[in-house]
Structure formats: structure tokens, C-alpha cells
Write a structure and sequence with these properties.
The protein is of the alpha/beta class. The chain contains 12 helices and 18 strands. Strand 1 (4-10), helix 1 and strand 2 (30-33) form a beta-alpha-beta unit. Helix 1 (14-25) crosses helix 12 (383-395). It is globular. Bound molecules: flavin-adenine dinucleotide.
């Protein structure tokens, strides 16, 4: 294989795989590095279901043939574009089928160093190989950005871990576990812990839990469909805008983009998870953790309750289901010179229409560019935009953009 390429893709999750498919179809010479679907295999709990609907969980390919639905049909798995949660293992297998079906070669190595060289880039593949590329696309998802807030971050890993640290929650059978958080990850982890024999408690600082509504009937009257359209990220006009118009989102004022990228589609549980949570184990809303310390091999949390009163909770372990925050300082595989050359927006790399950053030739796709293209970048659904847009830019081909297959999947 050549040690020079026009494009190097770093990351082989949905965004990297989708981009590879689009570059290949556009005839672009590229090399691809990363562990295919690693976040989904290593950082999500067994037994999890996707929150996104079937039709909104497609990895974009140029011909639109390698959809989740096509995969499920080919492998005899149940599928519905709407209303049937997608099991995690189905989605992992789908990603692998997408890669092999489209014959996308991925070097399963981590890139340890990217430096500027002769107007392009040099990539160090763990000291084993060096590759030069004129352009680099960073598609590394969220795995570098797990966020544990203070005071939990000061606890040792034996007592407190981020939710992404757990593949097998059955390991907590018979233990007392506190889950901190109010989003899908917190609520589903808690349900899985409970179902696997742990004594679980959820602490959420939100005053109450938010739950997504039941799927809307597709045959509802036209006026209702106009008022509350269904889109890749969910229902409602705002959500429809985020799902289908990332180019227009990019034109919004910077502060609005940063705020919307962070707060839109805030923490909420999927409707199908509700009866696995409510009445099953204690969920204490309005409770904020104020102190955390180890005590006799367990953990002791000081908590401010809704009435302002302080309470103390003890457990064998705390799981911080507290999300992800882009932090460029954690991308240590990018040289200091590259990182300091990045213009940022809301702490994330600012990118232009073709996802190119302020470092010429360096592109970012996926969750890291949500403050530019909007919340859709936090979801697989956003591959409909990123893959074609970056391929167009890197192949020098301009053309009309395909719309996401939102309606097609219904
Ligand atoms: C618990 C949980 C549930 C979720 N559920 C959904 C859902 O239902 N629907 C949805 O649309 N989204 C969901 N998401 C969001 C999901 O993470 C993103 O949509 C998606 O993973 C983004 O894809 P990606 O390709 O950007 O990154 P990832 O899937 O994270 O892939 C990152 C890739 O980068 C590679 N990589 C990282 N560092 C390097 C390096 N130095 N060198 C080489 N390769 C590297 C990894 O090996 C991996 O291949 C969920 C997230 C979590 C945490």
C-alpha cells in the first residue's frame, strides 16, 4: 500500500466509514485508519438499544443501497423504519456489513502523531509506519471527550467511572451503584444495572426527567404534520431544521450555534425505556452532587436536594453518565502546532462549508463540528451531509447535494 495519499481519514465509526464510501465513489485516493465501530463495541453497554429510529440510523453511502433496512433484510433481522428500537449489536453488525459490503479497506491502527510536512501532513501509525497525505479528515467521534464533572472527577477509577467505561453492567450484580445523570445513557445504564441485579439509584440535578414522546402516527392530518414534522433527530420544527438544514444552521450567529449545539435535544429518555425506569428503582431529581470521597472502600457523596437540604449517599460505585465535551487539548495525536493553528467555535474546531478547518487541508466531521453544522452532527443521521460535502470538496467536484432520506425511510 502506498505511503502517500491525497486523503487520510482518521476514525472508522459511522462518519469515517461513510466518508470512505463517498471518497471511493468520487475516485479520490485515500487511506483510512482506526478501529471500525470501536466506540459502539467498547464503550456502550450490552443490551442497549439505539435511541435513533431505524430510518435515522443509516450510514450514508453514495448509492443509498447500504441502509440499515437493507442490512436487516439481508440478515433476516427485524426492522422498522419507525417505532422499533434498534439493538446495539444489530447496529455494530450493520457498520461491519457496510464496511465489508462496500469493500472499504481500513488499517486497524491508531494514528499517534500528525504533523505538518511540505504543505501537507505526515501521520505516524504507532511508530510502525509513516504516511503522508495532502489532506486529513479527523472523524474520531466522542471517545476522547468523556466528561466527568467535579467533584466526581477526583475519585479513583475503582470507585467512579464514566458510563463509557462499561460494556458489561452485569459485573455490578449484587452491588450498590449510583448513576449520576438524566439522559438516555444514565437511564438506560440504570435500567440495565437494575435488570442485572445491582441495587441502583439515579441522582439527577434536573428538576424532573424528560421523556421523548411516542412515535407520531405517519397518517396524521396534514396540518399536524406541517406543525410538527417528523425528522431524523425527532419531531418538531426546530428538530426538522437541525436534521435537514445543517448548511443554514452554519449561517446562524455564532453564539446561537454554540448554544443550540450544546442544548438542543437535551437529556431525555426514549419512550420505550420509561417503564423500565419508573417505579423500578429510586430516581432522585433535583439532586446535585456537591462532594465525593472514598470511605472504607466505598464512595460517599454529599448531595444538595431540591429543598436545599444536604444529604449523604453511599455506594460501592458511582457511574457518571455525564456526557462528552469536545476538548482539543485531548487530541494529543495532533501536533501542538496544528492544534494551536485551529480557529475554534465553542471550544470545537471551526470549519467551513466543506468541513475544512483553519489549518489548510485539515477537516473535521461528526460531533466535534456540532457548533458549526448543528446538533445533527452528534448523530449517525448527520452522515447524510458530512460524507457527500467532504467528498465534494476533496474531489473538487461541485454539484447539487442530495437531501437526507428522511421521508424515504418511512
Ligand atoms: C451511549 C451512546 C449511545 C448513542 N446512541 C446513539 C443513537 O442511538 N443514534 C445516533 O445517531 N447516535 C448515538 N450516539 C452518538 C454516536 O456516538 C455518534 O452518532 C457516532 O458515534 C458518531 O460517529 P463517529 O464516526 O463520529 O465516531 P465514533 O463512532 O466514535 O468512531 C470514532 C472512530 O475514531 C477512531 N479513532 C479515535 N482516535 C483515533 C486515532 N488516534 N487514530 C485512529 N482512529 C482513531 C476509533 O477507533 C473509531 O473508529 C450515542 C452515543 C453514545 C455514547
Amino acid at each position: 500500500m502506498s505511503d502517500t495519499a491525497d486523503v487520510a481519514i482518521i476514525g472508522a465509526g459511522p462518519y469515517g466509514l461513510s466518508l470512505a464510501a463517498h471518497l471511493r465513489a468520487a475516485g479520490v485516493d485515500y487511506r483510512h485508519f482506526g478501529m471500525p465501530m470501536r466506540l459502539w463495541q467498547a464503550a456502550m453497554p450490552q443490551g442497549m438499544f439505539l435511541k435513533s429510529q431505524g430510518f435515522a440510523s443509516n450510514i450514508s453511502d453514495p448509492a443509498g443501497t447500504h441502509t440499515l433496512e437493507a442490512f436487516c433484510r439481508a440478515t433476516n433481522r427485524p426492522y422498522a423504519s419507525y417505532g422499533l428500537p434498534v439493538p446495539l449489536d444489530t447496529f455494530i453488525s450493520y457498520g461491519q456489513w457496510f464496511q465489508s459490503g462496500l469493500d472499504l479497506a481500513v488499517d486497524e491502527v491508531l494514528v499517534t502523531d500528525v504533523t505538518r510536512r511540505d504543505g501537507g501532513f505526515e501521520l505516524n501509525l504507532g511508530g510502525v509506519e509513516r504516511v503522508r497525505a495532502r489532506n486529513v479528515v479527523v472523524a474520531i467521534g466522542v471517545e476522547h471527550f468523556a466528561y466527568v464533572p467535579e467533584p466526581l472527577s477526583a475519585l479513583p477509577a475503582a470507585l467512579c467511572t464514566h458510563s463509557s467505561a462499561h460494556k458489561d453492567l452485569a459485573a455490578f450484580h449484587g452491588q450498590e451503584v449510583i448513576v449520576v445523570g438524566a439522559g438516555q445513557s444514565a437511564l438506560e445504564s440504570a435500567a440495565l444495572l437494575h435488570e442485572n441485579g445491582a441495587a441502583v439509584k439515579v441522582l439527577a440535578r434536573e428538576r424532573e426527567l424528560a421523556w421523548n414522546g411516542e412515535p407520531l402516527p405517519p397518517d396524521r392530518p396534514l396540518l399536524q404534520r406541517l406543525r410538527e414534522p417528523e425528522a431524523g433527530l425527532g419531531s418538531g420544527l426546530g428538530t426538522w431544521f437541525y436534521s435537514n438544514h445543517p448548511d443554514m444552521f452554519r449561517k446562524l450567529p455564532k453564539n446561537t450555534r454554540v448554544y443550540r449545539a450544546r442544548t438542543a435535544l437535551g437529556p431525555a429518555g426514549a419512550c420505550w425505556l420509561r417503564n423500565r425506569v419508573e417505579g423500578q428503582f429510586p430516581v432522585l431529581t433535583g439532586h446535585a452532587v456537591t462532594s465525593a470521597e472514598p470511605q472504607d472502600g466505598r464512595v460517599r457523596l454529599g448531595v444538595a436536594g431540591p429543598d436545599g437540604a444536604s444529604r449523604v449517599f453511599e455506594a460501592d460505585h458511582v457511574i457518571a453518565a455525564t456526557g462528552y465535551r469536545t476538548d482539543l487539548a485531548r487530541l494529543t495525536f495532533l501536533s501542538e502546532a496544528i492544534r494551536s493553528g485551529l480557529r475554534t467555535v465553542g471550544g470545537s474546531p471551526a470549519v467551513g462549508r466543506g468541513y475544512e478547518s483553519s489549518v489548510a487541508g485539515l477537516h473535521f466531521v461528526g460531533p466535534a463540528v456540532a457548533p458549526t453544522f448543528g446538533p445533527v452532527m452528534r448523530f449517525v443521521f448527520g452522515t447524510w451531509h458530512a460524507g457527500p460535502a467532504v467528498a465534494r470538496r476533496l474531489s473538487g467536484v461541485s454539484g447539487t447535494r442530495s437531501q437526507p432520506a428522511v421521508a424515504a425511510g418511512r
